[in-house]
Amino acid sequence: MPIEESPLPQFESIRQADVPKGRDGKHKQIILQLLQAIDELKNGSALKIPLAELPDTKENIRSALSRATRQRSLDVATSSDEHYLYVWKASNGKGEKN
User: Fold this and answer.
1) CB distance 75 to 91 below 8 Å
2) Higher model confidence: residue 64 or residue 21?
3) DSSP letters of 47-86?
4) Between the CA of residue 37 and those of 30, 32, 46, 68, what are the distances in Å?
5) What's the domain count of the chain?
6) What global pTM score does this model have?
7) What is the pLDDT of residues 14-49, one digit of tens each?
8) What span, in angstroms and rounded, lies between the C-alpha atoms of 48 and 21?
9) Could you list the residue range(s) of the whole structural domain that residue 34 is in?
10) Is the distance from CB of 86 to CB of 46 less than 8 angstroms?
11) Which pLDDT score is estimated for 17?
12) Residue 51 within any structural domain of the chain
């Protein structure tokens, strides 16, 4: 018995400007704030971010921050405890660790 070929599905066309863009999601605002604060950090300083004030889990924020810093070739490190997420510049801009 021959296999019937199904017709190709019909697709709708929209303007390219109306296509949703990548990762402009729920973490965008906090990540932009963190990136700005990281830029302003002095060597030897770290951001101390209350976990209770994050819009998502520390794991999800760390992941989003990691993606954003990789895109910008920033070298940052993170740590956390029960109440805070800590973020700091991992190198001094010359490839050397602080």
Assistant:
1) yes
2) 64
3) EEEEGGGSSS-HHHHHHHHHHHHHHTT--EEEEE-SSEEE
4) 11, 9, 10, 14
5) 1
6) 0.69
7) 888 887 776 567 788 999 999 999 999 998 999 999
8) 31
9) 24-89
10) yes
11) 83
12) yes
